[in-house]
TrEMBL record:
TM regions (residue ranges): none
InterPro entries, per the entry: CE4, Glyco_hydro/deAcase_b/a-brl, TAT_signal
UniProt GO BP: carbohydrate metabolic process
Stored PANTHER family: CHITIN DEACETYLASE-LIKE 4, PTHR45985
Superkingdom of origin organism: Bacteria
Disordered: annotated span: 31-101
Keywords noted in UniProt: Signal
Stretch forming the signal peptide: 1-23
Biased composition (Low complexity): 36-66
Protein name (record): Secreted protein
Amino acid sequence: MVKATRRTTVLLTGGMGVAAALALIPMAPSGGGKVATATAPSDSPGAAATASSSPPVGAPSSSPTPWDGKVKVIGDGSTSETGPEPKQLVPQKLKPGEKPPQFVVFSWDGGLEGDEHLFSHFREVAKESNAQMTFFLTGIYLLPNSKRYLYHPPQHPVGTSAIDLATDQHIKDTLEQLRQAWADGDEIGTHFNGHFCGSGGGNDWSSADWLSETQQAYSFVENWKTNTGYKDIPPLPFDYQKELVGGRAPCLEGQKTLLPVEKQLGWRYDASSPGDFQIWPAKTNGIWNFPLQELPYPGQNFQVLSMDFNFLANQSGGDPNGDPSKYAQWEKTARDGYLNGFERAYNGSRAPLFIGNHFETWNGGIYMKAVEDVMRNACTKPQVQCVSFKELADWLDAQDPNVLAQLRQLDPGQAPDWSTFIK
């Protein structure tokens, strides 16, 4: 396995313009040290309020029944069943001598449509690039500030969160984008709710805490119509009990106690690992583990996690408004870092590439521009499949476990003789 010095940073922000400054964290060579974390400041805690009744327990349904062509409104009308998901990858088992597709997953934490209209913009970019994506929705982005007392965060006062809640217009815009994203074939996962990190965050939560947080994430999506009072907006076109099969924990914290909850709920994957080499995925506790990945930082002898914030942390020390004279070079570095990881796998082991993002204009929006360039460049190449995490899980489940075990032995840039490798 190729080894290199890491300088790894862990995501601390949750969106809506929140960007916590984070010092660069030097790490031990790969395979040695652990990813270090820091505590993110909570910039918008709300006052504690009278407790409300507990939200309904979220749990996935059993295998879905065939759609009869009629829209089935669920609960208070916040969601509905509208039939099979559109434009989904049909998984095919690898044949002897066949080279695997190069999978790339673009995922987005938070999912808020803000004034910059980045959510809608990247939906259009994905269409033009023949790509599907995963949106990890923050549940409280569908909860009005006036109803924040409905949120009971583990180990924190009722109604508090480490991120701002959305405005009424943001909620309406986000609902529209979620509706259209699902129709595009994109996946709606979860980024949970309050985005607490460090002390009192995911690493301190028990499985019971995570279950409560997850139940509330279900509830905020399934009851946005009651919570907002909006009567003239159509339901989200999916049953969240069936749609939700994976998530990413805020700050990539708490996976150990989160995994048993995900398994209990029948989820397919977890994307909360703080970083690993770009190798073929494996299951942890029966759940596909899809970590952020270590990519070679251009021009330096260290690895950077495959997420926009981690380039930001290495370039401007976590300051979202760094030196404008460096924007052009920083944008090129981010783009080249992603593409270096892509080319290494595309011409090597074909291990999937995972790229994490936020709808933010950090450092003049250079990370958005870099990701757009990568999507347009990579997703249009032969034998490349830009898919959602759920689609990747489907494909992996269709493969021979022995073949996957064999693929996991490859270094990221190692290209075997594919004509004899898959037997």
